[in-house]
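Justification of computing resources. Each target in the renewal requires a structure prediction run like the one illustrated here; the chain below, 187 residues long, is used simply to show the kind of job we budget for.
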Amino acid sequence: MEALYDAPRQLPADAEGSEMAKLRREMHALAALQDPALRVVVALSGIHALPARQIRSMLVELVDLPGRRLDPEGLNRPLDNYTAEAISEYLAYRQRRWPNSTNPHLLITRNTATTTTAVGTFWMDRLVKKLPAGVDRLRQDRILEEALANGADPPHLAHVFSLGAKASLRYTSAVTESKAEQAPNTC
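Resulting structure tokens:
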């Protein structure tokens, strides 16, 4: 068990055939067409399962594009191609739109570009309101998908998504109960 926590963080598994994976791909496509910031939010919540609070407060310095790492709150995660591309395109957009901004946060708005303040909850809620699911739902579904892909293993979920014991057990219990409901009754 100790070796699991000492292992480097891995990209979460992606069950490509799952309904959530299909919905996530649709949301990525929609986000890419609408807004570079939306694409980043969808990637961080739908792939990396970051909560809205972490996404809003993420600093640019925590994104290592050349090294392909993402380090929100010391989690040091590998950066997948989609998220790296989304962040790279957003940073280019940000540089064009607010070339003199010194705001250290990854996501900024016209109101926060001249400050050091993170974007607010209202801004994020407005950003994602056209999507079929919000940031919290994307995050929850991503964690459930990981639990399904890896046999409902609480330590794995805790390690990959930095969840506490109760949260890991809640997600694995939901997956286990769902599998039991779907199992054919042999009686």
